[in-house]
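1st attempt posting a full record on here, be nice pls
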Amino acid sequence: MPNSCPRRSPATPVPVLAGLTVIICLFSSVSPVIGWRPWPNQQPTNNTTDLLFGGSKKYEGSSEFVHLRYHMGPVLTANITVHTIWYGTWQKSQKRIIRGFLNSISAVDVKAPSVAGWWKTVQLYTDQTGANISRTVVLGEEKNDRFYSHGKSLTRLSIQSVIKSAVTARTKPLPVNPKSGLYLLLTSDDVYMQDFCGQVCGFHYFTFPSIVGYTLPYAWVGNSAKLCPGICAYPFAVPVYMPGFKPMKSPNSDVGVDGMISVIAHEIAELATNPLVNAWYAGQDPCFPTEIADLCEGIYGTGGGGSYTGQLLDGHDGATYNMNGVGRRFLVQWVWNPVLNYCSGPNALDQ
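the predicted structure (as tokens):
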């Protein structure tokens, strides 16, 4: 992160609280809001029993330990448009899986438990006027960066330059939509991101006007298939320090991309409820917020916690999933329910 505060653009002013957050975070040299790791702060261990039972399997009921608060910042109440940047080499089949998930968020007439049912929990969050997160999430424009314009090794800051290139391209630039647009940068399995695999599988933040020219909420998610599938595509791949554990079969026959789906869901849910890092989160420090998906990392079904995913569904083909989408199945982590005060999802057994 730069050590000076970015200048604001008159066309896209940063709210006061967001500006203060930027100043605080920049001067403390803090990275963007990181998201998703199978077991946060869990160091490799030879004791697989600790991995199985170290965390309560009823973590989703531990409401007394969670103090999620609203910090008066904006949330995405207008119809949400996801603009995707495909960075690197992507197969058409891989793009179809991810588009299928994004199209499923607002889909109707999908068999329960559905992705749209999962999004209903995100919709429960409101802004200071009482307006809820939008029900509608649609695919926007897409940009292909198949020639790795910024190289195969990216940093958190260089991501913003990739986004700038996409919105200022001479041909077919991505539209600039600060109020209801989300910019999703997806890197292929041969691209390394700063802290990828060791600390993060995805993160979100917002662009700086001094770099991009606008304040745009964005998320990055990488394909871990070659670098660390056991970390970022769990449970479809298993870490080397968990010998004897058998990976589950991915529902769309692509371990890396099926693993990405849950991380993408994680980041979109947090972008909707905390786009400028000054809305919904737990903890006292806006530079290190614990957000609605962070609270439920690794929980995909009733009883989930630690490395135990919870109760899931098995297809006739042996694939594991917990939600139905438009013509596809997905495994998506739960998010924190502000009404129930615990993690919940459409496949919960106690619904």
